[in-house]
Design a protein that fits this description.
The protein is an alpha/beta fold and about 140 residues long. The chain has three helices and five strands. The protein starts with 16 loop residues before the first helix and ends in a 7-residue tail after the last strand.
Length: about 140
């Protein structure tokens, strides 16, 4: 039974205007934020290398330390009496080299402090090039 004969029923409709407004605001926000992404990048100046300026007589200093904190420079054992004595031994072993490469050969069971002692002695001696040696694990 239809009691409302003369009345027309209105069809429900979806109003798209507010949805378009929201999408435009999101689009404007995305455009504004992406324009500033370039300014937030890190500025890195990479070093340049040249093959002609290589020093032929630069010999690395091999500093070894074992698990019981015994130190050796170029396979010659030294008495460790402190970081200052190790620094002097590094300077003596370097001779006339201004900044040799310090190669640290540390035993797998050597303490971290013994490796840090070598790095600190190199810093006190004014040597900035430090590297570590490793070996591959057998398959």
């Amino acid at each position: 039974m239809n009691f409302q004969r003369g009345r027309n029923r209105e069809e429900p409709e979806i109003n798209l205007i507010p949805m378009i407004d929201v999408l435009l605001v999101i689009l404007i926000f995305m455009m504004v934020t992406t324009s500033y992404a370039k300014f937030s990048e890190l500025q890195i100046n990479l070093p340049q290398a040249g093959g002609a300026t290589s020093a032929a007589n630069a010999q690395p200093l091999n500093v070894a330390v074992d698990a019981s904190a015994n130190y050796a420079i170029n396979s010659k054992g030294i008495n460790f009496n402190g970081i200052n004595s190790l620094s002097e031994a590094l300077k003596k072993a370097a001779g006339n080299q201004t900044d040799p490469t310090i190669v640290i050969n540390a035993d797998a069971k050597a303490t971290h402090q013994s490796v840090v002692n070598i790095m600190e002695a190199a810093r006190l001696a004014g040597y900035t090039h430090i590297t570590f040696t490793t070996q591959n694990q057998p398959n």
